[in-house]
């Protein structure tokens, strides 16, 4: 096979260029090292940064780690920010198969470098550039053309430089050298998890090389492994056999290509024919519409002319009542008649007309209606039918959107069910933004093979309508019922629970992902409760987010477990956290401590004062709304059922915080907050309870393990 003919296999699916230091992902696809890192950093920024440019371009924020007790003052100073270039996100969709890939704790360092692919790419580059020379790396300018490349030194040399840097009688003279190349690969493949161990086994379950430590006590201890030589022999035989089979079927492949070309031409002709038929049908509809339009406009014009004629007659009659014109002028002339017989003969009929005009003047009534309400064309039913106009459904039922499994957070996740799933080849998901003036925007369409789809790049604080239709070939089902979802009021702020700053591991239990925390009401809490006898109270256990906010608008959501006794959630400034986390535990009351929470005595007295924190109390399946000057302060109005998920919206620039019911994206409570310092998501637990951060919506498809 000519090396120039395989370029398509050497293109990275992410950057669409030739592979550079390709890495092998768990799904067995390869991707450039720099592309993996860029993907992870991009996803990390999409969860942690302000969001898409069109949602909030004027609200950048600094990503700050949570303050430790000994560095909180320094961190709180303006201008400090985290400069780490290592992404925290380790899960991303593979650009090749779109399956979600989890790199685990080691991240990029746990991936193998695809040296075989790298070598083939280098051979392709050499064949492509043909006479382009590789220059010596050690020559003084101008460099000479290289004649050798040392695999141990990873450098290219001309003859003179090679003799200088590889003198006879030294260890360097034993180095391995090849022809000029830019592809330097290690002689021995080392294990990425145990960097000092050679790769000498092959895991048949994970389909990746491993070392003996991986088998003895690592992640592959219970997996079936084989020797590297055996795996090499087996895979090489299989690959050679498959290649021989394909080469032997070359004539069959060529005939199938010819058949496909004929099918493409047939498809093009049939497509044009279908377009012509569709145009014919629409032209018939246009003719019907034009005919109905003409008749409707003619009826309106006829009614308009009749009414205008009546109004014109009435105007002329009233103009006759004016002095020196019309009826009044004529009556004045009749009064000049002195012959009694002639006057009586003429005045009788004139008097009747005068009386009639006088009565119409006293009870003025227009001769016709000005409103054309009876002539308003009702097209609502026809508009709905035209909106569903599609190809003949042939009995395919419309899909049904699952409202319980569909949600919107950083992205929108739409799930649907189709009663005739086997009859549908694909689906088309349509969505559009609903403007406040109810302007009808065009639908955006996405073709989907499964029954769920993640929609990204939605604007904040907007309503979006979604609907789905099924396709069997070119036949479409009717559209499903529309589902309207409201996006969060600001881009989603991504953080994890901090396991260092003020974290009490005796009472709080944090999972490995650091997105869930539980309060354990165990023996320590029971001992602390004895202090109530002498007037002391058990204190709250605080836990905060590991990233701070210094500017912009941000939104995050969480779920409180239904068994939770007392949970406080909200925001707090770095200086307030310093005060809380340094105060002795079990020494103060959470109710009567000054500024301990939203329900403190001081806040009841002055609930409109701007404080450097705001916490809302949640517990026993209820949400307790703090007192405010604008809302009803009766207890029954301030105790609400606990939503499935609760959202918090912080506008750092305006100094406002709001709490949302995520089920309906409805604001439950809003107030001012002092944002002069760095603000952090803050939580506090007492007794048994649990808090789960809302998981960001990411693109999830079929598990690649099924393919393996």
From TrEMBL:
The protein, known as: RING-type E3 ubiquitin transferase
Keywords: Coiled coil, Cytoplasm, Cytoplasmic vesicle, Cytoskeleton, Metal-binding, Microtubule, Repeat, Transferase, Ubl conjugation pathway, Zinc, Zinc-finger
EC number: 2.3.2.27
Lineage of producing organism: Eukaryota, Metazoa, Chordata, Craniata, Vertebrata
Subunit structure and binding partners: Interacts with CENPH.
One cellular component (GO) term of this entry: microtubule
Keyword Zinc found: yes
GO biological process, one term: spindle organization
């Amino acid at each position: 096979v000519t090396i120039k003919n395989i370029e398509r296999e050497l293109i990275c699916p992410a950057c669409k260029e030739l592979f550079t230091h390709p890495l092998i992902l768990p799904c067995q696809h390869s991707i450039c090292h720099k592309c993996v890192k860029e993907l992870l950093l991009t996803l990390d920024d999409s969860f942690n940064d302000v969001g898409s440019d069109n949602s909030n371009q004027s609200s950048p924020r600094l990503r700050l780690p949570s303050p430790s007790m000994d560095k909180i003052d320094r961190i709180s100073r303006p201008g400090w920010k985290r400069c780490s270039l290592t992404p925290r996100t380790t899960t991303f969709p593979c650009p090749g198969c779109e399956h979600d890939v989890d790199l685990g704790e080691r991240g990029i360092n746990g991936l193998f470098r695809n040296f075989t692919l790298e070598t083939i790419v280098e051979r392709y580059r050499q064949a492509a550039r043909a006479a382009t020379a590789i220059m010596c790396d050690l020559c003084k300018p101008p460099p000479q053309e290289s004649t050798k490349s040392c695999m141990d030194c990873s450098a290219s040399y001309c003859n003179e430089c090679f003799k200088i840097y590889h003198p006879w009688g030294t260890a360097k003279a034993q180095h391995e050298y090849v022809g000029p190349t830019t592809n330097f690969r290690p002689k021995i493949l080392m294990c990425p998890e145990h960097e000092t161990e050679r790769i000498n086994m092959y895991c048949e379950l994970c389909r990746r090389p491993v070392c003996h430590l991986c088998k003895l006590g690592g992640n592959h201890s219970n997996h079936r492994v084989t020797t590297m030589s055996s795996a090499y022999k087996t895979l090489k035989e299989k690959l050679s056999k498959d290649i021989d089979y394909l080469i032997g079927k070359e004539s069959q492949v060529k005939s199938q290509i010819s058949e496909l070309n004929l099918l493409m031409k047939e498809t093009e002709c049939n497509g044009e024919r279908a377009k012509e038929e569709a145009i014919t049908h629409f032209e018939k509809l246009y003719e019907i519409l034009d005919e109905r339009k003409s008749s409707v406009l003619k009826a309106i014009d006829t009614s308009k002319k009749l009414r205008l004629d009546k109004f014109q007659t009435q105007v002329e009659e009233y103009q006759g009542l004016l002095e020196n014109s019309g009826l009044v002028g004529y009556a004045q002339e009749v009064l000049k008649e002195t012959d009694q017989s002639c006057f009586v003969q003429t005045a009788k009929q004139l008097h009747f007309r005068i009386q009639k005009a006088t009565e119409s003047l006293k009870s003025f009534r227009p001769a016709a209606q000005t409103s054309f309400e009876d002539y308003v064309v009702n097209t609502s039913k026809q508009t709905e039918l035209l909106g569903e106009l599609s190809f003949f459904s042939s009995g395919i039922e419309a899909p049904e959107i699952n409202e319980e499994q569909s949600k919107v957070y950083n992205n929108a996740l739409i799930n649907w069910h189709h009663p005739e799933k086997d009859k549908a080849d694909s689906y088309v998901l349509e969505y559009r933004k609903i403007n406040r003036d109810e302007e009808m925007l065009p639908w955006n369409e996405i073709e989907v093979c499964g029954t769920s789809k993640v929609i990204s790049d939605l604007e904040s604080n907007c309503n979006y309508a979604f609907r789905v239709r099924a396709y069997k070939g070119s036949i479409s089902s009717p559209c499903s019922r529309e589902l309207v979802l409201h996006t969060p009021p600001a881009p989603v702020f991504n953080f994890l629970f901090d396991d260092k700053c003020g974290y009490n591991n005796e009472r709080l239990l944090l999972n490995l992902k650091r997105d869930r925390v539980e309060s354990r009401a165990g023996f320590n809490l029971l001992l602390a409760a004895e202090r109530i006898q002498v007037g002391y109270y058990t204190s709250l256990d605080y836990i905060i987010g590991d990233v701070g906010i210094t500017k912009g608008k941000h939104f995050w959501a969480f779920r409180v477990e239904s068994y939770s006794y007392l949970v406080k959630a909200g925001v707090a400034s770095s200086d307030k956290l310093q005060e809380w986390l340094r105060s002795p535990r079990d020494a103060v009351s959470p109710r009567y401590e000054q500024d301990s929470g939203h329900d403190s005595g001081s806040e009841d007295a002055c609930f409109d004062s701007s404080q450097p924190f705001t916490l809302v109390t949640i517990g026993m399946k209820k949400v307790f709304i703090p007192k405010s000057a604008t809302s009803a302060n009766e207890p029954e109005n301030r105790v609400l059922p606990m939503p499935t998920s609760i959202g918090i919206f912080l506008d750092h620039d305006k100094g406002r915080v709001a709490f949302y019911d995520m089920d309906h994206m409805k604001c439950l409570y809003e107030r001012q907050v002092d944002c002069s310092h760095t603000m952090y998501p803050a939580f506090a637990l007492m007794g048994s309870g649990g808090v789960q951060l809302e998981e960001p919506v990411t693109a999830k498809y079929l598990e690649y393990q099924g393919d393996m």
